[in-house]
């Protein structure tokens, strides 16, 4: 199982370091792709989704997407982009996107 840990666009992948360490200690793979652009500035949400999607596509194992805060709102877009490769979504201190239409 591979956990792709998606950070908020206002933070960086380091927020997941302790979680990634624990997941690895328990025999899982954990990847925390950076969604930040040059100089650490937040990327556009589309570019952030592309970065997260690339991390998922790099694995041939089943993937669990885990999103923190605003990163959670990106999970359905990433899951749709990679299809059946994603086994589940976990929202951590995040709103859950609307099941249809736009999410404010």
Comma- or semicolon-separated keywords:
104 residues, alpha/beta, four-stranded parallel beta sheet, 3 helices, 4 strands, 29% helix, 20% strand, globular
Explain this structure to me?
By secondary structure, this protein is α/β, with parallel strands linked by helices. Helices cover 29% and strands 20% of the residues. The protein has 3 helices and 4 strands. It has helices at 17-25, 45-57, 75-82, and strands spanning 2-6, 29-31, 63-68, 86-92. Strands 2-1-3-4 form a 4-stranded parallel β-sheet, with helices on both faces. Helix 3 links the parallel strand 3 (63-68) and strand 4 (86-92). Helix 2 (45-57) crosses helix 3 (75-82). It is globular and about 35 Å long.
Structural classification: alpha/beta
Distance between the termini: 32 Å
Helical stretch tally:
3
Spatial sequence of strands, sheet with the most strands: 2-1-3-4
Mean pLDDT: 89
Helix fraction? Answer: 25-40%
Largest sheet: 4 strands, parallel
User: Would you count the extended β strands for me?
Assistant: 4
Shape type:
globular
Q: Uncertain segments of ≥5 residues (pLDDT<50)?
A: none
Order of SSEs:
EHEHEHE
Strand content: 15-25%
How large is the radius of gyration?
13 Å
Summarize the structure.
The protein is α/β, with parallel strands linked by helices and 104 residues long.
């Amino acid at each position: 199982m591979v956990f792709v840990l998606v950070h908020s666009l206002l933070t960086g992948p380091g927020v997941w370091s302790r979680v990634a360490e624990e997941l690895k200690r328990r025999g899982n793979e954990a990847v925390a792709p950076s969604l930040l652009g040059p100089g650490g500035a937040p990327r556009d949400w589309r570019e952030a989704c592309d970065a997260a999607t690339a991390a998922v596509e790099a694995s041939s194992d089943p993937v669990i997407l885990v999103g923190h805060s605003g990163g959670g709102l990106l999970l359905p877009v990433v899951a749709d982009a990679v299809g059946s490769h994603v086994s589940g979504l976990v929202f951590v201190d995040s709103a859950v996107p609307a099941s249809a239409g736009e999410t404010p």
